[in-house]
Amino acid sequence: MGTFVFQPALLALDDASSLECDGGTVSQGDSEDSVRDKCGNPQKVTQEGVDSPIIWFYNFGPSDFVSYVSFTNGIVERIQMGGYGN
């Protein structure tokens, strides 16, 4: 099995206004705790630099788009979608 290297800066991502999870809808302005309550723990968390946003990665499977939720100061700043998950 290959190694998954997470590099969101290299991916073509589309902005989204919200993210639908089993526990509810995530939108800009939601807190980290709110996102965790709605979507569960992310599969991966990354931050490119000290002053960069923290990015949570969600892969809900092959029938859904991979989601990237960016946080600044613990608040959702941006939601992006990539290709289909696995």
Low-confidence spans: 1-5
How many strands, what sense, and barrel or not for the largest sheet?
A: 5 strands, antiparallel
Please tell me the total number of domains: 1
What portion of residues is helical? under 10%
* CATH C-level: Alpha Beta
Q: Into which percentage range does the β-strand content fall?
A: 35-45%
Structural class determined from secondary elements: mainly beta
Number of helices, where a helix is a run of at least 4 consecutive DSSP H or I residues: 1
Shape: globular
SSE pattern, N- to C-terminal: EEEHEEEE
The CATH architecture would be: 2-Layer Sandwich
What is the CATH third-level topology name?
Beta-lactamase Inhibitory Protein, Chain:B, domain 1
The averaged pLDDT comes out at 89
